[in-house]
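#structure-requests
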Amino acid sequence: MCGYRYFNRLKFQARAQIEHSNKTYAAELFDISLRGALLHSIVPLPLTKGTCCALKIHLPTSHISLKFHAELVHLNENNYGFKFLEADIDTMTHLRNLLGYNTGNPDQITDEFHFWLDSV
């Protein structure tokens, strides 16, 4: 089915950092799923589709940061869509909990998580 997303996206605001070529760029998280995230930067960033970066998303009201190795797969003005390539188990556990608590449907997120595990 065209345009179908298996992984639901959660609109969520948080500070983020994009690290590439020994430089760090500030950004804001717009939305996130188990598979990727959409970030916004106030200024254009020197990134192109296919660029691999390290992402760090700082969860508000905690000292937890989600850390991903990700690929830029979508670029529209100052919006940057990343596909997660790698994450440690703590990051994935925190992300699953974040999505489960904030979507109001933890069972669906658990199903998505199992689907994601089967696909890696």
